[in-house]
Amino acid sequence: VGVIGYLGFDLINGKIKENEAKSITDEFDKQIPTITEEELNESLEEEANNSGEENASNPNGNTEQGGSAGNSGSYNRGSYYNRSYYTNGVNIDGYWVVGTIRIPATGVRYPIFSQPTKSALERGVGMVYTSNGINQVGNSVLAGHNYRNSLFFSRNKSLVVGNLIFIKDVTGVEMKYAVTNKFTTNSSDTSFYQRDTTGKAEINLSTCTDNGLKTGERLIITARQED
What Cα–Cα distance (Å) separates residue 2 from each residue in 7, 149, 180? Predict the structure, then answer.
């Protein structure tokens, strides 16, 4: 009875975490509608043109500040893209969310939090390292739990080279990555964090192996931006 009770509690607890993760992901998608890179570029160009017109009509340089991050429709997407919010994210339910991750092969769809805190990692994926921000040239490392079930990065071991990963950032652009490598290492290894990505965006997904809590072993999935 005790074992059954424990397993039941674990199942219910996992369902609660899954529902909270879905709620945060849905709210991020509501606040940050998905757009194409072409639409983002048009927004940036329009903002640059408007800024030039405002400067010409307002030589004293007095400007009004727009809305704050995290309020739907309250910011100009071009300005948002160039501000520190790109790495801090938007505040949803007290968590700073910098994007979302989708992995069709494993059914993953979770928020990406700016910090890999204990509380955040119980509700999604945490940013461990980034050179320039997700979906930017350089490497980013995302960590997620392996609960040895279907939650978070538990099924990363089933990923193979060529599987697709989709990362959406605070601009609304969702970038497609393809898995290029899969390896195991120890929890203190950071040698793969900083590297030359030859002008592309890359990501690493880090999680414990099934015995990682005892051995400190980590499973790393490397993926590279697709054209």
Answer: 9, 21, 44
C-alpha to C-alpha distance for 8 and 165, rounded to whole angstroms: 32
Identify whether the C-beta of residue 133 lies closer than 8 Å to the C-beta of residue 184: no
d(CA 153, CA 20): 16
Residue 183 has pLDDT above 60, yes or no: yes
Quick check: 104 and 174 in contact, CB under 8 A? no
Beta carbons within 10 angstroms of residue 182's beta carbon: 17
If you average pLDDT over every residue of the chain, what do you get?
Answer: 82
Given a contact cutoff of 8 angstroms between Cβ atoms, the answer to whether 179 and 223 are in contact is yes
The residue among 58, 81, 69 whose CA lies nearest residue 171 is: 81
Question: CA 138, 72, 116 angle in degrees (round to 5)?
Answer: 40
Which position has the higher pLDDT, 140 or 60?
140
The model carries a pTM of: 0.80
Higher pLDDT, 26 or 88: 26
